[in-house]
Amino acid sequence: MAALLDSTHEILRGSAHELRGVIADYDPLLDMIGAARFVLLGEASHGTHEFYRERAQITKRLIKEKKITAVAVEADWPDAYRVNRFVRGMDKDGDAEEALAGFKRFPTWMWRNADVVDFVGWLREYNDHFKDDAQKVGFYGLDLYSLNASIEAVLNYLRKIDPEEARRARSRYSCFENFGQDPQGYGYAARSGQSCEEEVIRQLIELRRRAIHYRDDGKPASDEYFFAEQNARLVKNAEEYYRLMYHGRASSWNLRDRHMMETLEALDRHLSQVHGATRMVVWEHNSHLGDARATQMREIGELNLGQLVREKYGEESVLVGFTTYAGTVTAASEWDLPAERKRINEALPESYEYLFHDVGYPRFFLNLRDHAETKNVLREPRLERAIGV
After folding, report:
1. Distance between CA atoms of 368 and 379, rounded to whole angstroms?
2. N vs C: which end of the chain shows fewer Cβ within 10 Å?
3. Which pairs count as long-range contacts for 6-15, CB under 8 Å and 24+ apart, including other chains?
4. So where are the chain's domains?
């Protein structure tokens, strides 16, 4: 067994590319990405500075060298769209910190942190070099937790463009007022048969039926309609998500990741009208961006965004994970409690992180796409670190 482990370490040392903190660190990664249209950059936790910093550095190079069209993140659609308007010079926010102020829902530190502020500021400066909007890089959210904010965004859009339809939409969405402001309270009440399902579906259908009238004023009008439509679709999917959340983890998890895939596909279609072929970077947790078929998730009936992207786009997609042996993380002890800086346990002996720690490099990149021998020695199932919020 010891000899086998030594052999594994030797193979990993031979294929690992040490990261030394220089500009050329990620040359092999960019070579591996090649012409891929979807680059998924994960993280083992939602609160580790190094993951955010390195992901931002990789993304900057992809934007400059691979002509990325958009950055899509594990964040609420309306909050991220405010950032999108800022980075494309379409909003009144004075700086990146102000543009990120819309992220008020727990966990705020996921996106309102120094690394994201720096990246958003950089992206605005990058975009300011271009007069043509088609050359600017957008910033979008893929998640579905913004039920109330998305309802308000749909109503605000309709109030400006169709006040009569706004009143009807307000009546449809008023169904949720019976359950208070907590979407989880709605999910609990829905167990007894109370549901807003019919109303949210009707509203989405009605918005799409009127699309030709709402979008006929040129590109800005088309962008605003797209923003509103995605919010209406989010409300429909969020209603179902909260209604299913008490039926078991797999059903609600799968609905959430399918929603993120639908949003990614909708972005691809919408942006292709302006940019031609689109190329996107996605920032999410490893549990969303790895391929679920290669993990225990598959055994319990779960899929994820990484799997769905790979199934549809194949070699046009690249999945990249980040992990660590030890360190610190920003996290709360329970949902909705204040953030704390916590020291994480060192990796367990049966884990990938423990194995990688013994390779001997403090930081390294491992190409599992082009090195068959490296893939073979890692096929044995091992534990993998995953820290949420």
Report:
1. 11
2. N
3. 7/377, 8/355, 8/377, 9/355, 9/358, 9/359, 9/360, 11/373, 11/374, 11/377, 12/355, 12/356, 12/359, 12/366, 12/374, 12/377, 13/359, 13/360, 13/361, 15/366, 15/367, 15/371, 15/373, 15/374
4. 1-68+279-389, 144-276
The pTM for the full model equals 0.94
The per-residue pLDDT for range 266-286, each reduced to its tens digit, is: 999 999 987 788 999 999 999
Q: Give the tens place of pLDDT for each residue, 59-96.
A: 999 999 999 999 999 999 999 999 999 999 998 899 99
Q: What kind and span of H or E run contains 240?
A: helix 219-244
Write out 35-67 in H/E/C secondary structure.
CCCEEEECCCECCCHHHHHHHHHHHHHHHHHHC
Strand partners, 38: 280, 317
Flag whether pLDDT at 120 surpasses 60. yes
Q: Alpha-carbon torsion 342, 348, 351, 354, what sign?
A: positive
Inter-axis angle of helices 249-275 and 219-244, to 10 degrees?
A: 170
Dist. CA 224–CA 234, nearest whole Å: 15
Domain 1-68+279-389: which topology? EreA/ChaN-like  fold (3.40.1660)
- Which residues, in sequence order, are CB contacts of 13 under 8 Å at separation 6+? 359, 360, 361
